[in-house]
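Might I ask for a little of your time on a matter of protein folding? The record follows directly beneath this note:
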Amino acid sequence: MTSVAAVDHQEKAPYFSAPARQWWWTVVYLFCLSLAGLKFYPALLVAGVMLFMQWKRNRYFFLVELIILCTGSGFLTYSYPIKACDFAFPVALIGILIYRKDGMIRTITTAMLAYFAVLFILALTSVEPMRNQFSMIRYYLLIISFFIPLVTFADRVFKFRELIRVVILHTLVICLFFVVDSFVLTGFILTPGSSSWGESTFTRPIIFTFSLTRHYPPGLYWLLLLIIPLNFKWYRMQWYWWVVFVLCLISSRTNSLLFALVGCFVFFRPNIRQVYKYVVIAILAFGALYYVDRATGDSLRLARNIDSFAMLDNATSKEEIADFGSGRVAQIIPKMELLYDLDREWIGFGFLNREKTTNPIFQIENQYYSDISVSEETATGVEVTEIQTILDIGYFGLFIQMLFYFGVYFYIRKLRYSNFYLCLLVGFELLGIGGFAGLNGMQYSLLILGMVLGGIILQQKRYPI
């Protein structure tokens, strides 16, 4: 991997560490987000004051904590028309003005605007009004957030390694919050935005359920940014952090997250020999985990998902196929059938909104749902982000999306640390198979990708502006 400095395999990496005051600051800030997620909104004011203080003191903390706030990261859910992520658009306008003479940024921005133009052209071909589509299309545009670090450090020296150190610090605390919530509080107090049991508030908290609650994984996307520092021996982790990581995966019980982390950990090794070695280790580990999961009653959901592949191979009807992927195929089949019936497989339906789209042409009755009360729905909202992208913008749009994101990597591939961008890109696509992250921005993961892209570009500048 040429985009990260070579390592001496005989030299041991230092253990990750940070000053005590930084640990405490991170805990307090994230706890404020926990309280805000519990609908105790005065905590947001405290978090805002802390952000302002870090703008003055430490821009790395400011940037990471701002992105955590905007993504929710398992703490917050945004149910309002205006999202915290929307501020990325005015920041981008400022960034375009500041960096208008920078050749690299101008090239990436031009490619990005061309990609956005294709999205809008495809949206205009739909009979759905643009006023309804805009609330959904904006999520696809969140890669514009790469201007946030550029504007944040416009007058400062920037070091990419320091940004990653601050990311790791916050990621470790987020993991601790997940573990405490799952195995001590057995509820959704520290990470209320990850609740799979409904809304947890400070007036009606979900706590002490005395069962292994499943926490959805958006707060754990940050783990993908630990892979290259660990693989390239920037840091080592003490043994107890590895226990915390395993407990987080058990708490999440999300196989797409497991595959994304393991896949990126294996394939983003310093050399091809290590890739082969860890491929074998990963296959053996998954085999062992499969039998452990079966023996413990499928508590991790791994064995059931693997067994479903065998069921898919022997399926004799659409109903049997619909059960595949924890019911995700049941979401997909009638919507893809409608897409082909309308001859829009290449350009998609447009950016439909479950709440706002009322055109009867996009309404379906899904016969594959076991709960008939939800069988009538709009032809959107499937838990596979790649399929959702096809529904929105068709096969042509999906091709343009892949061309843009991987084209950006091809353009920056010789820059130092460009592998961080590729690692996130691959990890998010693997997560998208389970309906998480992906490149359609619905879970704000593009804000993290944008932050990393902006950081890689900043690292190339020898002097502050």
Notes: Residues 297 and 448 are 36 Å apart (CA to CA). The chain has two domains: 20-288+409-459, 314-389. The chain has a mean pLDDT of 87. Residues 314-389 form one domain.
